[in-house]
Amino acid sequence: MTRTYNLTDGSILKALFKIALPIMGTSFVQMAYNMTDMFWVGKLGSGAVASVGTAGFFTWLAAAFILIPKIGAEVGVAQAVGRENISEARVYIKHSIQMAVYLGLGYGLILILFRHPLIGFFNLEDTGIIEDAVTYLMIVSVGLVFYFVAPVFTAMFNGYGDSRTPFLINTTGLVVNMILDPVLIFGIGPFPRLGVLGAALATVIAQAVVIVVFVAVTPRRPELFSDLKLLSAPSAGYVARIVRLGLPAGLQSGLFTIFAMIIARIIAKWGPVPIAVQKVGSQIEAISWMTAGGFQTAMSTFVGQNYGANKWKRVANGYFVGMAIMSIVGIVASALLILAARPLFSIFIQEDEAIREGIVYLRILGLSQLFMCLESTSAGAFNGLGKTVPPSVVGIVFNALRIPASLMLSSTALGLHGVWWAISVSSIFKGTVLSAWYMATLTKNAEITPVMMYIRNKCSANVEKNA
Q: Helices 236-267 & 272-308, crossing angle to 10 degrees?
């Protein structure tokens, strides 16, 4: 098989940037979806932001289910391509699409049926905020299947090594969303003013456009998408393989969202402003979070292809190159959040109280950005090897500890700020522990040990040469 997107030969730095830059661009596009919504919804006031933020927890929870077919497609396709077995890659593509459609339809139906008690979980006191949150959740749930399938299409292309195509397609969806948001939220031209409802409609329409474009370009990749037979029954063996790859990450994501919802309930006792602060602040923090997540996918693809090709030296060397790159990103992100907290937060909300709290939030969370980047890089390397359990274990344990830490610290003189410190410190621990775990894997794994010895000997030789 002739491969156009081969990451198993040549310069590691060039290969990583080749695959990583478009993926990080796609991550920024996905971040920009939410930031665009927050920008326009923020002009309606902190109450509207709280409504969208509250309902958004359930679309955030959807990411847990999306990760199962997404990781399965990404790792399965990458490893099959590394083994030069394109027919197996097509099988992973078929099963991942089927799983995404079923999960999207099922989860969306559950949200529609139980939208009132789900929003009621947060004990919001303002009836207007509650009504807007229920409306937003209802509309988004109707189009949730698009929300599920788009990341899986993106993962398929990324696993193949073609990260440019999904970047361009997702950018198209962003442009649609950017146009529709102000038009539908504020009623520009012949359109009525829909407020929060308009933000939901804009998001659903943009995601539908993305799926249409993805389907339109599949004939250009016949080696991946020909003869998929999507209406045929799935194979239990491949379904189990995809679930085994994606379930740990999905479980981690789902529990992360549940823990975040519990923390949001803790925050709610201080009123709607802190809820809005966390929602907007998390979107700003996503500048580094989505960059790291994009590089995580790139690392997963790079390691997956080289693992499939049995090139262990590139697996180990690629990890160290990736860690160096993301360390720089993490340091820059920390400086940005700490030093530019006020102008960043003021973009989204102009209320003085929200800005004051937002500055504190960003500065505290800014301290952990380097470690968050290291965590994402190590998680991607583990995923590429097909070892998706370690990142999930580390994530679940330290995310769970945020709840007792938040309760304990917020009961001290720190008050609300104690919650922000609990989140930041836990991120520092996650990055430290997972990076150490992967290093231990490289050192102790029987197949990788010779590579680590090669790197150590090469470094020693360079030291002696320069002495």
A: 150
Q: How far is CA 440 from CA 169, 284, 344, 444, in A?
A: 39, 33, 39, 6
Q: List Cα–Cα distances, 70 to 20, 63, 115, 346, in angstroms.
A: 17, 10, 26, 35
Residue 102 CA to residue 148 CA, distance in Å, equals 9
Q: Specify whether the CB–CB gap between 24 and 158 falls below 8 A.
A: no
**All residues at 6 or more sequence positions from 234 whose CB lies less than 8 Å from its CB, including other chains:** 94, 95, 98, 99
Mention every residue, 6+ apart, whose C-beta is less than 8 A from residue 448.
312, 315, 316, 441, 442
3-state secondary structure of 191: coil
What does the block give as tokens for 163? 């990260």
pLDDT in tens, the chain (467 residues): 444 466 778 788 888 888 888 887 877 777 777 777 777 887 787 788 788 878 888 887 888 899 899 988 888 888 888 888 888 889 889 999 999 999 999 999 999 999 989 888 877 777 888 888 899 999 999 999 999 999 999 999 988 888 889 999 999 998 999 999 999 999 888 888 898 889 899 999 999 999 999 999 998 888 888 888 888 888 888 899 899 888 888 888 888 878 887 888 888 788 777 877 877 777 787 778 778 887 888 898 888 888 888 888 888 888 999 999 999 999 999 999 999 888 888 877 777 778 888 888 899 999 999 999 999 999 999 988 888 899 999 999 999 999 999 999 988 888 889 999 999 999 999 999 999 999 888 776 545 555 455 545 554 454 445 44
Distance of CA 59 to the CA centre of its chain: 12
Which amino acid would we find at residue 51?
S
Say which residues have a Cβ less than 8 Å from residue 290's Cβ, sequence separation at least 6.
Answer: 24, 27, 28, 30, 31
d(CA 246, CA 95): 13
Tokens coding 409: 């610290």
Decide if 95 contacts 234 (C-beta within 8 A). yes
Left, alpha or beta for 253 (phi > 0: left; psi -120 to 50: alpha)? alpha
Nearest to 349 by CA among 34, 46, 47: 46
Q: For residues 399 and 80, what is the distance between their CA atoms, to the nearest angstrom? A: 33
Q: Give the closest residue to 70 by CA, choosing from 248, 210, 217, 228.
A: 248
Compute the chain's Rg from CA coordinates: 22
56-69 in b/e form (b: 16+ CB < 10 A) is bbbbbbbbbbbbbb
